[in-house]
Amino acid sequence: MKRLSNAKVGEVVRVLKVEGDAKLKKRLLDMGIISGTEIRVVRNAPLKDPVEFELRGYKLSLRKNEAEFVLVE
Fold first, then answer.
1. Angle (nearest 5°) at CA 41 between 20 and 52
2. SS3 45
3. Cα separations (Å) of 20 from 31, 45, 70?
4. pTM (2 d.p.)
5. Where in the chain are the domains?
6. Taking burial as the number of CB atoms within 10 A of a residue's CB, which of 26, 28, 40, 58 is the most buried?
7. From the CA atom positions of the chain, what is the Rg in Å?
């Protein structure tokens, strides 16, 4: 188990749990980041933040501090 923020480019991970305060957790869940979802790390921005992910047929960019609250395997 690790954090989504630690996943490497090209890696495919599966969401185990979303943590954080209620507002952040709801925001991440509304974006489709729920338990069991497969996420592929597409690329990093030039300064490594934000990171682009692909999930459920669309691409999503998250800041590393937001991705820190997503536990994956």
1. 75
2. coil
3. 15, 24, 9
4. 0.91
5. 1-43
6. 28
7. 11
- Give me the amino acid identity at 50: P
**Which residues are within 8 A (CB) of 15 and not within 5 positions of it... i.e. 6 or more apart?**
4, 33, 34, 35, 36, 37, 38, 39, 70, 71, 72
45 with 31: CB under 8 angstroms?
no
Question: What type of residue is 15?
Answer: V
Please give the angle made by the CA atoms of 55, 57 and 58, to the nearest 5 degrees: 70
